[in-house]
From TrEMBL:
Residues 1-22 are annotated as: Disordered. The gene is chrA. It comes from Paenibacillus haidiansis. Pfam families: Chromate_transp. Residues 1-10 have a biased composition (Basic and acidic residues). Keywords: Cell membrane, Membrane, Transmembrane, Transmembrane helix. This is Chromate efflux transporter. It is a multi-pass membrane protein.
Length: 425
């Protein structure tokens, strides 16, 4: 922090004309540049959150030099520390550094809009069509099996390695299955955080607290950051109360906003983990059918950009274009509030031993929650025969062993499902 302040003090004052120019046409040009660069990434960034970070590094660090290697690495570390879509938060953070709050919004919109628009069109195309017995739809459901299985496999090797973290993951999976819905997931995360505080209080060498330099500071005051955090927690706590007491069309919109805001607030571990949270919000209540839910989740794997645009699809299924807009804004809003609120305090969070210990437990629980979702509802509603199992296994091999692009898996799943329907009659 002191280094940043010294730079600010030593910097020569800007002439009045230059400041006015920067706040006028130059600022608009900068926002347009941020939007166009992020939109290009939104159209071309296939492969999920880890691949997105590679695309961002190539574009923002190597090509445009908007930040250096060290700043980028620290920003990525912060975004993986927070709940929410890590790659989207990195983009928001870069936009924030480049153009303030308006730059953060431009970066998010450019990266998110392409995938969200296609997901909404897919939902509207399915509306009113009886596709429950379509072979390609069943193939997309089996694609979801392969995608989530690959995510459990990959995340488990990193976040649930070792006997104690594996035990936390198994416990979280069992608790989530025994207590269906958001309550079981939140309870599992809270219990895992307490277990992490106790188990990892000594910080063995393999989980030692990293000594990281201060993250790049955004052009915001700490008061703005604290206000952002206060708004995040206020919405998280008060939205369920207001939604429960509301009625009519406004009440429906508020309940929709509450469900997706809560899902976006509680996702640790990447886009795939949003699946069980959203499933518990929209499927048991009948807002979205199980087949439609899994079809959309399979289809979003073929999209560039963030996996969280699955919310755009669900909102469109529930309430057309207005529902899609509400769901999209609600699920990404926590990412905005958290990155804006936490970035100035990153150095303290990074070196706080208790927070690090709790997060090791939470990360292991995330693997267990996703494992529970793999069994129910994904496996139980999709794998109904030996042919289904073989196709799901083939799709898993394409992702996990042969490292083929996700869009090829989606196309293969749809084609395989149609072939299975012809063979089985």
């Amino acid at each position: 922090m002191t280094i940043d302040h010294r730079r600010e003090i030593d910097a020569p004052p800007q002439p009045e004309a230059e400041r006015n120019s920067l706040s006028g046409s130059s600022a608009l040009r900068r926002l347009y540049e941020i939007w166009t660069v992020s939109a290009k990434l939104g159209l071309t960034s296939f492969g999920g959150p880890i691949a997105h970070l590679g695309y961002f590094h190539e574009e923002y660090v190597k090509k445009r030099k908007w930040l250096d290697e060290k700043d980028y690495a620290e920003l990525v570390a912060l975004c993986q520390f927070l709940p929410g879509p890590a790659s989207s938060q990195v983009g928001i953070g870069i936009g924030l550094r480049r153009g303030g709050l308006a730059g953060a919004a431009a970066a998010w919109l450019g990266f998110t809009l392409p995938s969200a628009a296609v997901m909404v069109l897919f939902a509207l195309a399915l509306n009113g069509l009886d596709v429950s017995d379509a072979g390609w739809l069943h193939g997309l459901k089996l694609t979801a099996v392969a995608v989530v299985a690959q995510a459990v496999w990959s995340m488990g090797r990193k976040l649930a390695a070792g006997p104690s973290r594996a035990a936390i993951a198994v416990f979280a999976a069992g608790l989530t299955l025994l207590l269906p819905g958001a309550s079981g997931q939140v309870t599992a995360i809270a219990a895992a955080a307490l277990a992490g505080l106790w188990l990892y209080r000594r910080h063995d060498a393999d989980i030692a607290v990293p000594q990281v330099a201060p993250a790049p500071q955004p052009p915001l005051r700490r008061k703005a950051a604290l206000l952002s955090l206060a708004l995040f927690f206020a919405l998280l706590l008060l939205l369920p109360l207001f939604a429960a007491q509301s009625s009519g069309a406004g009440g429906t919109a508020l309940r929709l906003f509450d469900s997706f805001f809560r899902a976006g607030s509680l996702v640790f571990g990447g886009g795939h983990v949003v699946l069980p949270l959203l499933q518990s919000e929209v499927v048991p209540s009948g807002l979205v059918g199980q087949s439609d839910f899994l079809a959309g989740y399979g289809f979003v794997q073929a999209m560039p950009g963030p996996l969280f645009t699955f919310a755009s699809y669900l909102g469109a299924v529930m309430n057309g274009l207005p529902g899609a807009i509400i769901a999209t804004l609600a699920i990404f809003l926590p990412a905005f509030l958290l990155i804006i609120g936490v970035l100035p305090f990153w150095i303290w969070l990074c070196r706080n031993a208790k927070i690090q210990s709790a997060l090791h437990g939470v990360n292991a629980a995330v693997v267990g929650i996703l494992l529970a979702a793999l069994y129910d509802p994904i496996w139980t509603s999709s794998v109904l025969s030996a042919g289904d199992f073989m196709l799901a296994l083939l799709l898993f091999a394409m992702l996990a062993w042969w490292k083929l692009p996700p869009w090829t898996t989606v196309l293969s799943g749809g084609a395989g499902g149609m072939l299975l329907s012809l063979v089985t009659g």
